[in-house]
Specification:
This protein is an alpha+beta fold. It has seven helices and nine strands; from the N terminus they run E-H-H-E-H-E-E-E-H-E-H-H-E-H-E-E. GO terms for molecular function: hydrolase activity.
């Protein structure tokens, strides 16, 4: 599957039950968030930066056509779409930065995204990084999202670690990208992928899920039950 195709609803990459995607070799998109002890990033900024990192990877010239990462990207998207977020600091982060990938920065967050790797074929310097310990907070109140900005709405009833939520936000951004018409894609790309990640109000969540927007239903590998709806991607061009 190339980046310019939408995902058939009958074989969603995030659907929890087995399908044709499970028969393909499985790959994972690694994301590493920089969490220094003295200056951890704000949670919402980390989520938004991770989502943008996924979009940057999807559209990088190395990921499409005959680019050096294109085969890995196709193999990953033809199978179950998996993303794993790990944390790094100090020398760990410097080693991660030395590997082929893209670092995306937010207001306080730095996330490096790497081309997909086989489930059991992580580079050594990434495999040794911890998945746990990505519990982050927002030190300041998070303002309401701009109505003109694409919003990735998180399920208010699910308690997810920041790392898990970063991966889910990335899933939502990817589904939004797949669902957009070409003109809207070009505009979003040219603007640098502005987006917001917010937790939906409990009263608003049922309407978002039922509204026909791209929806992530988690496969249940970690933290939450299979089939849980984690993110609704609300891009103005998809309404």
């Amino acid at each position: 599957m190339s980046n310019d195709q939408t995902t058939p609803a009958t074989d969603s990459p995030f659907r929890p039950d087995p399908g044709a995607r499970d028969e393909a070799p499985q790959f994972v998109l690694p994301l590493v968030v920089r969490i220094e002890r003295a200056a951890p990033p704000a949670r919402t900024d980390a989520l938004e930066t991770a989502a943008r990192a996924v979009l940057v990877m999807l559209t990088d010239e190395r990921s499409v056509g005959e680019g050096e990462w294109a085969r890995a990207m196709r193999d990953w998207q033809d199978a179950r779409i998996r993303k794993v977020v790990r944390r790094a600091r100090g020398a760990e982060w410097r080693r991660a930065e030395a590997l082929p990938g893209i670092t995306v920065t937010g207001k306080s967050a730095e996330v490096r995204v790497f081309p997909p790797v086989p489930l059991d074929g992580w580079p050594k310097d990434l495999a040794r990084l911890q998945v746990s310990g990505t519990d982050l907070d927002d030190p300041d109140p998070v303002p309401p999202a701009d109505p003109a900005t694409p919003v990735l709405w998180l399920n208010p009833d699910l308690g997810m670690s920041a790392g898990k939520a970063m991966a889910q936000a990335g899933h939502g951004a990817q589904l939004a990208w797949w669902g957009l018409p070409d003109e809207a894609r070009a505009a979003w790309h040219a603007a640098g992928f502005p987006l917001a990640v917010r937790t939906a109000g409990p009263a608003d969540w049922p309407g978002l899920v039922a509204g026909g927007l791209p929806t992530v239903r988690d496969a249940g590998y970690t933290e939450i039950a299979p089939g849980s709806c984690t993110v609704v991607a609300d891009h103005p061009a998809l309404r």
